[in-house]
Each structure stands twice: as structure tokens, then as C-alpha cells.
Amino acid sequence: MSASKASRSTRSRASAPPTPDEYAAFIGQIDLLDVWLVESHVENHHGPRAPHQAGVAIASATPTYEPGGGEFSVRFSYEVRFAEGTTIHAQISIILGLLFSSQQPMTPEIFDVFKDVNLPVNTWPFLREFVSTTLGRMGWQPFTLPALKQGVPHDHDDGIEPATTKKRRRTSTRQRGTSDA
Question: What's the CATH number where 147 sits?
Fold first, then answer.
């Protein structure tokens, strides 16, 4: 084999995605150390009460990572939009930071798989909590985003299927003005 063929072969092997066994070995040796809120932005165009009906759409931008000695950090963002037709009732944008310990260095090839497989699974619970409590702070009834289902085909480009929700009125089970006497 000539030197140029060997160089091309090494180059194509280096940019090939990891095998399932290589990826599993990488995931097996990392640990999630920290998750933090890097940035958020909330817009409520509807007011203190939730709209009667609104669809929710969720998108995410391409995450980034930075390697470090024995660890790597990731930035991952989501945008959640509550809308009815062309009317946007509310929009929540969030950027999460994550710190992982790792004896093996993160590579672009591993990150191409990691960003689509593990990263959403690691960040989704934090997004669900943030959206629920933020809606409560807006005066809306808290809403729980649907579960993230990896490996299930979706009809949407971002891999997360929008859910339509009907907001229920707040009700109280306590009776006012009664006494036990």
C-alpha cells in the first residue's frame, strides 16, 4: 500500500463514526458531574392566565463541547414555543451547561453520536422542570412536557414531536368559609 493510500485510509478511519461497542465503552466511562443554567429568556405575550388552547413546539440548536483534562463540558439549548396558529403566546429559551468526567477524550466523531443520543436524555428532565416552574411563575397552570422517547421515529425535523395541550382551568378542592365546629 502506498503512503498516500495509507494516509487516506487513516484519515477516513479517524472520521468514521464509532462502532456501537466503541460508543458503549466511551459512555461507560463518563459521569455527569454538573448541570447548570447558562442563560434563559422568557417572553409571555398572553398575560397572567394561560390561553384556552395552545400547541407546544420544541426545538434545539446544535450543541457544542469543549475538552478538558479528564473532563469535557457541553452547552445545549432548547426553545419552547406555545402558539395557536401564527399567534405566539409564550416562548422560553434556555441554554444548559453540562460537565462530564471522562478518561477518554471527547472526539468530534463520538460527539456526533453523543449529541443526538445521550445529551437529550441528560438534559430533558431539566428542561421539563424549567418549563413547568416558569409557566407557574407566569401565572399559567404548570405543564409537564411529554417524555422524551429516543429511538422512536418522529415526523419532525428536530426529532421532538410537538404536543398540543388544552389548558385546564385552575380548580380548588378546598371549600372556603367552612369550619369544623
Answer: 3.10.420.10
